[in-house]
Write a structure and sequence with these properties.
About 30% of the residues lie in helices and about 25% in strands. It has a single domain, classed as Ribokinase (UDP-N-acetylmuramoyl-L-alanine:D-glutamate ligase, 3-Layer(aba) Sandwich), CATH 3.40.1190.
Length: about 300
């Protein structure tokens, strides 16, 4: 399948360290043997970039990392997946954003997280030719820029004929929604999770919350619901899309994988509901491995699963 897609993944890039097989945190200074420790590129921009590259898109990453060894590793992991990392600026005043995720046997994963260079990223870090040749701009973590700056970027993209999407990293909260509200009228596709939708809007159902977000100017809302799949809201109505069965290893990055599959589906000419099926099929690949870059899935893999 050779349908072209050129994407700018802008915003949050993180180095995740996964620790698989953690049943408890040792007391005092005691140690514990675990099954696996590995690192992966992650974040609402970085993780989505990795999976989009897996799905055959041409991907350019834009954001900020430190000048540390963590940044070196993150850049290498992105580059190994074919992501163009020349748009990631290096800041010598802060470390690269990183997380440590102890993964429980059921796939749950609490996290320790350092914001790092993501908090130092601004529009001034973006090149003047950012939009050249793009079909899509995905902004991961608009809250770090603020609504006005995020809206300025997204408006420029749409004026250039580029499709826009947004995934918020922060938990759902009405104040956070107010902080990014200026960006929402410039968002073609908003990709939150269920907790964010309910927290942002105070709605009692996802359908009600998604419709409220449409009312703020968003073109379409595709909400991830974990094992329940996704809910898609557009001006045509609200649809449920089921998840695909999978033996869960680690749920880290499933939201980013859904975003990537959904956006790739749009590039194939699918509407939001059918794109969400591709998103759920992609998330299933990631849930079955450790990190978004685990396994050997590609576009044909997820298209085949989504067509069942």
């Amino acid at each position: 399948m050779t349908v072209p897609m050129t994407v700018a993944a802008v915003g949050v890039h993180v180095l995740d360290t996964h620790v698989l097989g953690v049943e408890s945190i040792p007391e005092r200074s005691d140690g514990q043997l675990v099954e696996t420790i590995r690192m992966s590129a992650a974040g609402t921009a970085g993780g989505t970039a990795v999976v989009l590259a897996r799905l055959g898109a041409t991907v350019r990453s834009y954001g900020a990392v430190g000048t540390d060894a963590v940044g070196d590793t993150l850049l290498a992991l992105l580059g190994n997946e074919g992501v163009d990392t020349r748009g990631l600026v290096r800041k010598d005043t802060t470390q690269t954003s990183a997380s440590v995720l102890p993964v429980r046997p059921n796939g749950d994963r609490p996290a320790w997280h350092c914001i790092g260079a993501n908090g130092a990223f601004t529009l001034d870090d973006l090149p003047d030719d950012l939009l050249e040749g793009l079909s899509h701009l995905h902004l991961g973590g608009p809250e770090f820029l603020g609504g006005d700056a995020a809206g300025e970027l997204l408006a420029r993209a749409r004026a250039a004929g580029v499709t826009t999407s947004v995934d918020v990293l922060a938990p759902g909260d009405p104040d956070m929604l107010a902080w990014i509200a200026a960006a929402l009228p410039h968002v073609d596709h908003l990709l939150p999770n269920d907790e964010q939708v309910l927290g942002f809007t105070g709605a009692t159902t996802l359908a009600e919350g998604a419709r409220a977000l449409l009312g703020l100017g968003v073109g379409a809302v595709a909400v991830t619901q974990g094992a329940r799949g996704a809910l898609v809201a557009t001006e045509c109505g609200v649809d449920q899309v089921p998840a695909y069965p999978v033996d869960v290893v680690d749920t880290t990055g499933c939201g980013d994988a859904f975003s990537a599959g959904y956006l790739r589906g749009l590039s194939l000419g699918r509407g939001p509901v059918e794109a969400a099926r591709l998103g759920c099929a992609t998330a299933a690949q990631v849930a079955g491995g450790l990190g978004s870059d685990a396994g050997t899935y590609d576009l044909s893999t997820v298209v085949g699963l989504a067509s069942r």
